[in-house]
Amino acid sequence: MIRYVGIIMSFFDSSAEIFPDECYNDFYSSIFVFKYDLDFNIFYSNSNCQKYLGLDIGDKITSEELSIICGSKDCFSSQKLNPIMFSKSRVNVDGSSLSLNWINFASAVENGEVREITNIGIDFSSWTLLKQKLDDAETKCRILFENVDIPIILTDMEGRFIEVNNEVCRMLGHGKEDLLKMSYKDVMAEEHARIIEKKIEGISEKPYFEFTLDLINKDGRNIFVHCRSKSIFIEGRDVILTVARDMTEKRKNEEDERRRRLKYDIRDGNVYLANCLDRETAIDAFKSLVACSYSGIVISSQYEAELRENINSDFKFYWISSQKRPGSIKPDYSSIDQRIGEIPRKSVVLIDDIEYLEANASYMNTLLFVKSLKELALIKCSVFILCVDLDLIDVKSRYVLEKETSKITKISEERINYNMERILKFVNDKNSVGSKPTHTDICKALKITRPTIKRNISNLMNRRYLVAHVDGRSKRLEITEKGKKEFENRIC
After folding, report:
1. What pLDDT, in 10s, does the model give residues 285-294?
2. I need a labelling partner for 302 at 20 to 30 A (CA). Which of 245, 264, 311, 325 fits?
3. Is the domain covering 418-488 a CATH 1.10.10.10 domain?
């Protein structure tokens, strides 16, 4: 209101000669203007004042009437030369509503004495209604923003969170107040943060950009999302609006489907050991994972050309050597640990010639290195394969390697299929909360046809992974200890 009053004052803060009386009648239809002298005789009243307020030229207005019209008992004092502002809402005879904002000021002053008083009112009724509609629209948009099941993020150009909806809070496990103190760097891996920085730098060149990345929620769990971002102008500055889509389950299903083609029982988040006699098995397992879209990395003291001839796959190579050359790594555990710290998610790393590294290490170095690999494998959902001649290392180091790693084994012909694995997981989850699901429950939850459900449940029961309990006309399923063990051995 102050802004509009300032505009009106800019028109009327000088003498009436600049804006003669006849100009008032042609002014905006929302303007109310009347003038009176110190005896309260009205000598000017525009059409709005005459029509809606009943103030005619020649009438004498009382202080009580001024109080009713302007909304104040002390609406004006002839001793005050500065403008006075009031607000008043009223209902007219025809039932219409007026929301008037008044400003009263001396329009004629001689020798420091007030001679005339001008009252200017602005009808904010339509503006008030518009503001109410805007407020209602804002409320509706806020409800939609907060409750839509799509993560929506607003950041500044430096990546600091300005606004997030409830779905973002649920996905990341942080409260809104906490997230608004963070930036995107606090919820994603460092390698992804560098990619986003480059995207932001070039955001003005394209209307929007799309990307996928792994976010890290409060519990440390990776969440794979597809994002679409664009620059928008709001509240006087450029900001970035991002709409995200959680693709974690979809990616896991795709990865599981690819892994079904593997010949070896290799699970993410593990470190595997292969003796020199099993080196071909280790290489074959490495190649099969690369074929399943894992990022391949080989670290070896052999020449790269020889290895690439033997391993006919796409992989990145690091040479273990005491010579300082581009792409080489010193033959010690700490140098290798440092180099592989930034591997991409879903990598398979083949480290050859462990006995060469053991020549410069103690069993404590071996233990710390293997423990570090296991942690990295879990964080990155990756696989490490160590090739070593066990006869060339000391007893303690050999014990550490065999104890902290797993062996590469071929998949049994009795391995359960993808749908059987989903059923086993569903039954296990329901049993853990005290419920025994029926065939119908599984059909609805997993969206698998009843014949497929029946066939796979029958196979699971034949292998004694599940048992059925008769409940009237239904059969309720429960996972057995053997089934739990099989479920725990599934890939992460």
Report:
1. 898 888 888 8
2. 264
3. yes
Q: Which CATH superfamily is domain 261-407 in?
A: P-loop containing nucleotide triphosphate hydrolases (3.40.50.300)
pLDDT of residue 126 exceeding 80:
no
Confidence band of 273 (pLDDT split at 50, 70, 90): very high
The predicted pLDDT at position 431 comes to 92
Q: What percent of the chain has pLDDT over 90?
A: 11
CA distances from 147 to 137, 140, 180 (A): 15, 11, 18
Please identify, in words, the CATH class of the domain defined by 2-126.
alpha beta
The pLDDT of 241-270, averaged and rounded, is: 80
Tens digits of per-residue pLDDT, 354-411?
888 888 888 888 889 999 999 998 888 899 999 988 888 889 888 988 999 998 887 7
The pLDDT confidence band at residue 40, using thresholds 50, 70 and 90, is confident
| For residues 270-293, average pLDDT | 87
Average pLDDT (136-149) is: 81
Matching CATH topology for 2-126 and 148-246?
yes
In this structure, which amino acid lies at residue 91? V
List the domain boundaries for the chain: 2-126, 148-246, 261-407, 418-488
Under CATH, which architecture does the 148-246 domain have? 2-Layer Sandwich (3.30)
